[in-house]
Amino acid sequence: MVSVFDACLDVNKLERAALVLERFGSKGSLPYPELIGLHNEYLRAGIDRALDQPESNWAQSLHQWFEVQIRGKELPFTHETIACMLKISLLSARGPRLTRLVTRYLNMLPEDSVYSVLDAGILNQQDFGTITTLYKPISNLVMDELDSFMTESQAQESLSDQVPPSENSENVPTSTPEVLPVPQRGLGLKTLRGVLSFFDQIEGQDLSKLPIDERREIQLRLEHDCVEAAISRWRDENQSLAKMGRSTSLSRPALNTQIYDWHINLEKKLKEEFELFEESEEREKKTVEDMERCQYAPFMRQSTPTRLAAVTIMGVISCITHHGADKGVPLSTLLTNLAKVIEEDVRFQARQRHKKQRQKSFLQARRQRAMGTTNTTQSNPSETQQDSATTPHSSVIQPPVYDITSWPALVKAKVGAQLLSILLETAKIKVVREHPDTKALVSQIQPALARGTMHRKGKRIGIIVPNRVLVEMMKTEPRGDFLARHLPMLVEPRPWTKFDQGGFLEYPSSLVRIKNGERDQRIYAEAALERGDLDQVSKGLDVLGRTAWQVNKSVFNVMLEAWNTGEAIANIPPLNPDIPVPEEPESSDDPLARRRWLKLIKLAENEKSGLHSERCFMNFQLDIARAFRDQSFYFPHNMDFRGRAYPIPAYLNHMGADHVRGLLRFAKGKELGEGGLRWLKVQLANVFGFDKASLDERENFATDHIKDIVDSATNPLKGQKWWLKAEDPWQCLAACFELKAALESPDPTKFVSHLAVQQDGTCNGLQHYAALGGDRWGAEQVNLLPGDRPADVYSAVADLVKAGIKEDLAANNFMAKAIDGKITRKVVKQTVMTNVYGVTFMGAKAQVLKQIEAAYPDIEGQTGVPAVMLASYVATKIFKALGTMFRGAHDIQYWLGECAGRVCRALTPEQLDRIANESVKSPVKAKKARGASKKTSTNEAMEELLDQFRSTIVWTTPLRMPIVQPYRKSTSRVISTCLQELTLQVPERSDPVNRRKQLQAFPPNFIHSLDASHMLLSALECDALGLSFAAVHDSFWTHAADVNVMNRVLRDAFIRIHSEDVIGRLASEFNARYGGSLYLAKIARDTDLEREIAALRRRNRQSMREELLQERERQRLLASSDPAEVQRGSEMVTPGSLHDKMASSDPLPLNDEMDDLDIDDGAFHMRPIQEELSKAEDPTQAKRLMNVTHFEASMKKMNAANTPQRKVEYISIWLPLTFPAIPAKGDFDVTQLKTSKYFFS
């Protein structure tokens, strides 16, 4: 509803906005600060209409609105409200009435805060002068200096004479060869180059030398121009082909030319649709079609037909390209993506309009001040505003932080469906084919897109299928639309000050990446920002964004030459891949042979398509690198919900693949100094793959290969090509160039190096777990303890797996015999690496299977044991080895899972109060429940109460960032559109939590939040010391000269985090955050406690809801300060009191948190994982273990029985939410890390 209100204001439908606002007031669904914020928006819009229509009585009606809807309903108005009413008074009244109105409204403010209305941005200086003469208590005032608000239009005017406009520069000669595009018709990659052509016009010029205002203007142009550039490009190509005479009926136009026709037709149809909006809204008796049109009209009106048509076309083509043009796109996916693109563009336009309005007001005020409209003396409005804020008993509240909410799912679906429907109707494509008989070329106009259906997972879904000719054209003309908004920045990113203010100068981006509809993380983040809790996190992101980058021209030139050969070099896929295709078998042959042939054909086609897609993506990256080759640029960063930082520009950044990392270097250079040359050599050894040796051995490796290094840098593509043997060949080539230049300089210590030297952690997740658990053995394996050479946790795990296999050999185990001697570091590495991040058993088995099959393709033929069984056996051994090596970490995983499970089955005090109130209001319901059978009442109560479990896992990082896990069971909603009925997931904060996902994701997400804190803390400290710093999660980069300093910072930051009791602080936070809650615990049947509870329930015959409220009352009485109430509480007998009584004498082990994970407990309860998983090839057991993580399975305590047992049954009771005791910590002292030189290396 709020988004409907905003849309109505934006398109000047104030009457409808008033109806929506009245509905908010009558329902009481919004808190007062938000409601008065909406009233202020309405009054501002009313002022605009009164200015446009001075002869109407609109201004007068706003006085009535204020009296009835604001004062009449006793809303606490703001200074902005009074400023609006003063402006309305100046527009609608004269003489004594104006004096009375001004005096009346200003008297509503506290006496010493009347000046705060001047800060609302509503009254201009002429208004101030008038009010000053009418209201005597106001002394002379003067506006604050507005010189800093020079408009960007002025800046653009001053720049237009100096910087050429961004036009197609196809004829501008450039010294750098162009990137050979993927074969295409027409302008092809000009989709991107049309925006980037500006850089060709300034080749060789470094824009960083320009004044900051000019650089900001160029950056703004890059952010603004994409849609306009696309429309211009379509029109220009259409005109150029027309001039060339290539628009005959038997020639197929290029894609851009056909898209131009789509745009013209779609724009025309949208103009007709806009006229229908007016007719539907004015019609008194509305049809169903009119009602539906009125729902989405205000939202579409926020844009123009021209822009809507362009954005629709680009959005649809981009979505089809991204999801695979050959297969078609599900209609729901296409509509969701299209609506998202439209909404983003509408928001961007709204922000631009608002900014221009403010600039216009500022310019008007400056002109009035220059003309001497008023004589004023300066005062300090901020002081008076501060004083007014502390005035007691004031009815004036501070204005809320108000932001436009996202469009409702219903509106998104209808807007997307309407636009797509019109596009399907208007988009046509010319198809030219050879006649099968006459061989003459014939042409036909066909729909470019068709709507169909298909069956997927047993359901019939709608799909949009592009014409085959369109698919061919899209494959040869990859689309780069909307790319300009995701390019690197030419100026330092805007510092993060609010949730949606930071990064790009104007294009909206958010501090935390949030999926559509998920509001929890945003609410927590905005509250933390308001308190200042995210200051360190925001500053850390600013540090990452301020790191300036350049294209490494030496590497780029080699890469460009390699690319233009069309050959497969390093990770560059070939232009024309030669993928062998087997011959088709004879039709009389075995039908199974034909099936195998078809499968091989499909694999070959998929491989060829994958290589083509990869080359298209690299095409974009190289074109961006070519455009920015002479510039310094920046990557603005934001975070995911766990706090991990990511660059916002998606196509070219340092988190990319090897070729992208090789292309980038620091823009700021630094002399190598005494130790820098050594670290250059270590960097080369690391990227070559020689990174398991000691630092001295790595340095010697580079020294021993100095001839290969010089040859690689001198003749990269015509010499020995030693660099191509490296694990990361392009980064190796970059290091070769840098090392050769340093060694050939007169004094290598004075050589100015730009190369980013990387320091990687040793399985960083395990490093954090070892520190949390105090595991000395584990800490040694991940280099938390000092050593003469780097420890290798993967080799250590492999050794333990081998030892376990030797033990089984002694017991004549047939799988041990089959796999003996075949375990290597590579077999176990991926599983060890992903274990701390929640890999499932089936996932681990697949990882091991892939390595075994790669090393021993015919292992089943050699050993007689299927490879998949051996993979299960080895995965079991890996899990057991990790549990032995990281005992404390294993216990912490268990503890985290236990806490998460309890929280997800808890009801908060607020929920308990609401349930109690509902029971008071509906006693009949409770009586009916008591009259029903025990089984029926219990089942009904459980179903109802399970839907109340809405407490998601929330915790705070060491840098005070709140983390909110977003996993809920979203409800589906059927929405009828003009195309078909859509079933959409509509996430709401009131949805029940997805307990399995919450529990499964908590341990890895918690570790991610710690390594994110470590990275940001290191970034802040490095910045304070003057270091250039970049990071890729657990890989940290700086200049070669500063590696030693950075490594010290990394160690200190890690020690600083883990010197505190991280788990103890988390437990305290959980107790504070979830205190007073009750959770649903489970008690095993056939125990003394269960029999006591069963007897109590037979006597009381209470429903689960009644037991819940009774336990709530007992806890309230026990917590009372009145001894009498405490006595009454202690005398109450509930299942919870029986539990407390028996637990006090004999602690009761509760396994109540892992049984709700969709696992069949019958065959697995109390069974050791290492024995059970080896039998996982049984289809039933494999299905059960499909999504069970290692720590989940451990918490299940699976026993060793080989035959299925009767499933252990439980009963449920309500208990106060408490958390298990924190696991005992080992004897590892994290301060020992100070002397470990291989912590990051």
TrEMBL record:
SMART domains: RPOL_N. It catalyses: RNA(n) + a ribonucleoside 5'-triphosphate = RNA(n+1) + diphosphate. Its EC number is 2.7.7.6. InterPro entries: DNA-dir_RNA_pol_helix_hairp_sf, DNA-dir_Rpol_C_phage-type, DNA-dir_Rpol_phage-type, DNA/RNA_pol_sf, RNA_POL_N_sf, RPOL_N. Its main location: mitochondrion. Residues 217-546 form the DNA-directed RNA polymerase N-terminal domain. GO terms for molecular function: DNA-directed RNA polymerase activity; mitochondrial promoter sequence-specific DNA binding. It comes from the Eukaryota. GO terms for biological process: mitochondrial transcription. Residues 153-180, 350-395, 1117-1148 are annotated as: Disordered. It is found in: Mitochondrion. Residues 350-359 have a biased composition (Basic residues). One of its GO terms (cellular component) is mitochondrial DNA-directed RNA polymerase complex. Keywords: DNA-directed RNA polymerase, Mitochondrion, Nucleotidyltransferase, Transcription, Transferase, Transit peptide. Residues 153-177, 371-395 have a biased composition (Polar residues). Belongs to the phage and mitochondrial RNA polymerase family. DNA-dependent RNA polymerase catalyzes the transcription of DNA into RNA using the four ribonucleoside triphosphates as substrates. This is DNA-directed RNA polymerase, mitochondrial. The lineage of its organism: Eukaryota, Fungi, Dikarya, Ascomycota, Pezizomycotina.
